[in-house]
Amino acid sequence: MPPRINIPPVTRVLLVGLVAQSALSAAIRYRQWSETAGIVIPYLTLVPQLSLVYPWTFLTTTLVESNIFTLAIACFTLYQGGRYLERAWSSADLAKFLVIVSLVPNVLTFATMVFFFTLTRNESWTLSTIAGTIPLQIAFLVAFSQLVPAHTVTLFRGVVSLRVMRTPILYTGLVAVLGLTPLLSPAAVWQAMYGFLASWTYLRFYKTVFPDLDASQPTSLRGDASETFAFAEFFPAPAKPVVAALANQVFDVLVAVRLCTPFSAADVSAARGDALPRRSAGGGAGGAPGGARAEAERRRAIALRALDQRLNAATSAAAKQAPQPAAQTAGPPVATQPQTTQAAMTAEGQMLGETKFEPESDSSKN
User: Fold this and answer.
1) Separation of alpha carbons 140 and 142, rounded Å
2) In the predicted model, is pLDDT for residue 359 greater than 50?
3) Residue ranges of the domains in the chain?
4) N or C: which terminus of the chain has fewer CB atoms within 10 Å of its end residue's CB?
5) What is the protein's membrane topology class (predicted)?
């Protein structure tokens, strides 16, 4: 039996769109290739000077890679990251997250390129192509940093040990270096930075988390007020005080213009997993261990375990019901075929509620 590859629906659509659009882009560039002129596809990728009449490119350009090297990396990262996040969250939450971290960085990068064109009057800024899965890749790293902040990645048999919280900054630096090569466009650096900021802002302040139905608090919690997911935690220890002070100033400005809402004491307690007051069965208030996030994680783990057991049971049942290969290829002798057929029909009748079939004899017809 061939191995079954289980890909969640949103991740499957993401991979199909990436491969299809990248192949279409490669075919168009191959057909229009010229030694003297650069090729841009303004109706598929985002080109600031040409794509305003194609507004869908602000979203579709994220799933277009320009070479086989970046396409292979994109397929691997989207498959692994999308499958993990879709199972940890839900298909709807992942789809919303993908739309936000695709659209916002592309719009901000578009505005940045236009801004530099206004300053320099150099058309290379507005003719640069804004494309690629870089915003999605760095957004996945930020999401992993939220889910497993204390996890450590070990590479080269323990030679390199790296915390997950450090990966977004390192990825941004790597993109900045590759942006100087033909592998990535100059806009890739801005996509990485804006993707980092957009994904962290959404997860920090806006994403709806799994509610604690037993707690005496609102039915929906938004954001992640935990200290481990603070913006300064992504940076090395010497830079944390400076980054924290700057981030606090920016946050105060966003609160003043009502783009962000300060976290309440209940939100901070829930993020830390502190004991929250709950109403007991007798009507009094009693303390219960664990907060909303801890309870949500516990219920999610139970649901995933139950789903895994069901999948294993279904797989085992399908394997048992699979027909076994026959020991001989030749059929039974002609003389034994009626008895074999009748025995099979009798067994089938027993399975269908003890029904029985008896053929009429020749004497009854007369």
Assistant:
1) 5
2) no
3) 9-207, 217-274
4) C
5) Multi-pass membrane protein
